[in-house]
Amino acid sequence: MEEQVEMVGRAFVEHYYHLFDSDRASLASLYHQSSMLTFEGQKLQGVDDICSKLNNLPLEKCHHIISTIDTQPSSFPGGIVVFVSGSLLQSGEEHTLRFSQMFHLIPTPEGSFYLQNDIFRLNYG
Amino acid sequence: MEEQVEMVGRAFVEHYYHLFDSDRASLASLYHQSSMLTFEGQKLQGVDDICSKLNNLPLEKCHHIISTIDTQPSSFPGGIVVFVSGSLLQSGEEHTLRFSQMFHLIPTPEGSFYLQNDIFRLNYG
C-alpha cells in the first residue's frame, strides 16, 4: 500500500514535469474545475485560470531537475500528498532556481488522478 | 471561506512553530495515531514515533523564522493544506538553514485541527 502510494506519486510527478517541460499546454489534462494553484503566492482556481497562468509564465522553455519526492497517503480516500524539491533551469540561463512544490492528487473514477491542490514556491536565499 | 482557511492555517502554523521552539514535547497534542511525518525522507507514523523523532533531533534549541505561508482548502471536508517556507536558526549558530514544510490539517470533532500529513525538507544548494 505504502509502496504503491510512493510509486504512483512519483510517476505522477515525473509525468507532470515532463509535460511542463515538453508540452506545457497539455497540463490542462491534470487539473479539474475545482483545482487550486497557488503560484508564488498568487491564487488561481479552475483549469482555465491555472493553465493560462502556467502557459504565460516568463519561462519560455525550462527544465525541471527533481531533487527529492516525498509521498504520503492523504485523508481523502485514495488521495496522495506529494512534496517535491528541485531546480529549474531556464533555457539560455546558466543558473538554476531552487523550488519546492506540493501536490494533492485525487483519484478519478477512470482510475487516474487529478491535481486538487498545487502550491509552488521558489526558494530564495 | 477562503479568508477563514487562510486565517486558520496561518494561526495553526504559527502555533506549531511556537510550540516547536518553546516546548517541543507539547507538539504531541497536534498529532494523532494516524498522523504521518516524513522528515528529510524518513517516514514516521503515529504520535509516539513522530514526537520521539522531533524531541531527539540534533537541534537542542532552535528558532523558526517563517518566510511564506500558503493555504488552500483540501478535498477532505474542513481540511486545509498549508505550505511553509522559512529558516531555522540553531542556538549558538550564526547561519540559518532554509526549510520547506507542508501540513495537511484535519478538523477534530472538538472544533480544533490535527496534523494528518507533515513533510519536512531542508533546502540545500
Brief characterization of the structure:
The structure is a homodimer of 125-residue chains. By secondary structure, chain A is of the alpha+beta class. Chain A is built from two helices and six strands; from the N terminus they run αββαββββ.
**Shape field of chain A:** globular
Structural class of chain A: alpha+beta
CATH architecture of chain A: Roll
The number of E-state strands of chain A comes to: 6
Which sheet architecture does the biggest sheet of chain A show? Answer: 6 strands, mixed
- What is the straight-line distance between the termini of chain A? 38 Å
- Main interface by residue count: A-B, 29 and 29 residues
Radius of gyration of chain A: 14 Å
Integer average pLDDT of chain A: 94
Describe what this molecule looks like in 3D.
2 copies of one chain form a homodimer. By secondary structure, chain A is α+β, with helices and mostly antiparallel strands. Chain A is built from 2 helices and 6 strands; from the N terminus they run H-E-E-H-E-E-E-E. The first copy, chain A, has one domain: Nuclear Transport Factor 2, Chain: A (Roll), CATH 3.10.450.50. In chain A, 24% of the residues lie in helices and 46% in strands. The first copy, chain A, has a 6-stranded mixed sheet with strand order 2-1-6-5-4-3, covered by helices on one side. In chain A, a hairpin with a 5-residue loop joins strand 4 and strand 5. The longest helix of chain A has 21 residues. The first copy, chain A, starts with a helix and ends with a strand. The interface between A and B is medium-sized, with 29 and 29 residues.
